[in-house]
Amino acid sequence: MGVTRISTGSPFEKKAGYSRAIVDGDMVYVSGTTGYDYATMQMPEDVQAQAENCFLTIEKALKEAGASLNDVVRAHYYITDADYAEAVFEVTGKYFAGVRPAATMVVCGLIKPEMKVEIEVTARIAAGAPS
């Protein structure tokens, strides 16, 4: 089985030379995803709204890969300010309350000042949510 590349159509993917997601066998690797609304190429100011947009983009990529958020086994959260953690946890808890993947949160700089959160996930197709 070969590798499948998934794109959002963002011009940055081509410019930077990456795919939104890679499917390799039953594994799906979703690139770090920031809070852009890719339909409008707008970035909300609010970190919680950015996190919601991250999940919408990730969910779409996983669906295209034949997976879902329930299949996520690993998540990395990158925030630019430790004070954003609680707002981001509100969103991650909403999407992952029943999934509870292994996760790490890091406070760091991102490549553009308007970016406040970036989320990266790994999924195993048909992993299903644990009971």
From TrEMBL:
Pfam families: Ribonuc_L-PSP. SUPFAM superfamilies: YjgF-like. InterPro entries: RutC-like_sf, YjgF/YER057c/UK114. Coiled coil: none annotated. This is Enamine deaminase RidA (YjgF/YER057c/UK114 family). It comes from Maritalea mobilis.
